[in-house]
Amino acid sequence: MKPLLLDDRLGTLPDYPFARLTALLGAPSGPGATVMSIGEPQHAPPPLAAEILAREAGLWNKYPPATGTEAFRQAVAGWLGRRYDLPAGLVDPDRAILPVAGTREALFLIAQAVCGRRDDGKPPVVLLPNPFYQVYAGAAAMAGAEPVFVPSGDGPTGLPDYSTLPPALLERTALAYLCSPANPQGKVADTALLERTIRAARRHGFVLAADECYSEIWDQAPPPGALSVCATLGEGLSHVVVFNSLSKRSSLPGLRSGFVAGDERVIAAFARLRSYGGAATPLPVLAAATALWNDEDHVVANRDLYRAKTDLAERLLGGRFGFVRPEGGFFLWLDVGDGEAAAKTLWREAAIRVLPGAYLAGTGADGRNPGQRYIRVALVHDLQTTETALSRLGALLDG
Ligand SMILES: Cc1ncc(COP(=O)(O)O)c(C=O)c1O
User: Fold this and answer.
1) Which long-range contacts (CB under 8 A, 24 or more apart) does 2-5 make?
2) For ligand 1, atom 13, which residue shows the shortest CA distance?
3) Mean pLDDT score, 374-387
4) How far is the CA of 246 from the centre of ligand 1 (A)?
5) How far is the CA of 383 from the centre of ligand 1 (A)?
6) For all residues of the chain together, what is the average pLDDT?
7) Looking at the domain 8-44+298-398, which fold is it?
8) 48-296 domain in CATH 3.40.640.10?
9) What would the pLDDT profile of 163-183 be if each residue is shown by its tens digit?
């Protein structure tokens, strides 16, 4: 039999973190298990979503337009304008916004749209923070680009500052991913860092992909967004695209509904690509999403619950494991000395499932994996479950 011609770039990707976790611990079975390895919100979704999905059920027999509905694009534009205090007209709902099936597919596909071939034959560079959301690396590899991991500093302290990289590297860069609030460290990019990054993107001609899917889960203050910085910098949304979804904001990871917004040239290219290979968002889902982007009450309640769990985590774990209160998002990034060993202990002794930090990072230029000492703990359960699990975690890992 003749062998198949599979794409060998797939073989260069590490196994996805959850496959690695299954290899380490076995399957996540058992009724008593507390799964804190995956960022899958277990909060009750707003009832509005189910109500609208039921009301619009007559639309399931229609193919949805890839560009969504006008009402959806208007709702997203309105939300962006209110959330980031944007001047009217900065984000054109018809040319600068697209619905996507969650940010994951969009963060992956964007690399296929913006990593063009270079005249000198060298592969374009994709910049990634390290540690990072693993989809960025898969996207870079499958786009035929060279991924460059940029250290975020040890612990929950830092975010990459791409503007300080050598100009020759930035000249080769096609795309830079920046996640704020950051998964896994919970750090928020301040306005100054976003400004430096956007200026660098414009000077060197690369696209900044700002992954803002945790933007509404914040502790003390709402994180600035890349579009709010565009508003103060001038020159429109040039070189910037932001990604957001209802997965974390509205506890609806199963709805698969998000958006991408930004530079109209990038959005046009992306729309073209997605009209071939993207999953269009179903009309009932677009209707629910429209209502949810227009509603802030459920978001406030959701955020309050996360904040209560962060308070709890600080009370139970503060002063240990290098605990730093996350500025945003819902992950604890704990220094336990050896993340894999800690994950095994927690699973074996308490059926608590956490992710070793090494699975969320790549080996840096110094030969070190910056996540190796850490575990990532997702605070996605109710208060009681979280309290029980964190108390056990603290007791077990203290040895
Ligand atoms: C940093 C980051 N970006 C993107 C996503 C994808 O989320 P979704 O596709 O549900 O919008 C996740 C999900 O966990 C994430 O942690």
Assistant:
1) none
2) 39
3) 98
4) 10
5) 23
6) 95
7) Aspartate Aminotransferase, domain 1 (3.90.1150)
8) yes
9) 999 999 999 999 999 999 999
